[in-house]
């Protein structure tokens, strides 16, 4: 039963990441995002994965940890891309302004 509840928790957390990825991809800016928050969440998922492996509690729930960690990692990559785009826009605005 505890694994089922943990899986539901991971699914609930995981529902928001595709939406965040889409927003990051289409917005093309870091406005409203925090890389510190993303890195903290990613670190939490990595620690959860490590905990499962160290305890040798490899169950289907581990898949949800991995999927969520991958989605957060994608969002971090998009944050880096968007940060570079923000800097390019700032330079262009400074040159034109």
Characteristics of this structure?
97 residues, mainly alpha, 3 helices, elongated
Structural commentary:
- The protein is 85% helix and 0% strand.
- It is mainly alpha-helical.
- Helix 2 runs antiparallel to helix 3 (61-96).
- It is elongated, with a radius of gyration of 17 Å.
- It starts with a helix and ends with a helix.
- The mean pLDDT is 94.
* Helix-residue proportion: over 70%
- Uncertain segments: none
How many H/I helical runs?
Answer: 3
What is the gyration radius calculated from CA atoms? 17 Å
Largest sheet: none
Q: What is the average of the pLDDT values? A: 94
Layout: helices, strands, pairs:
Elements: H1 2-27, H2 35-54, H3 61-96
Helix pairs in contact: 1-3, 2-3
Summarize this structure briefly.
This protein is an all-alpha fold. The chain has helices spanning 2-27, 35-54, 61-96. The termini are far apart.
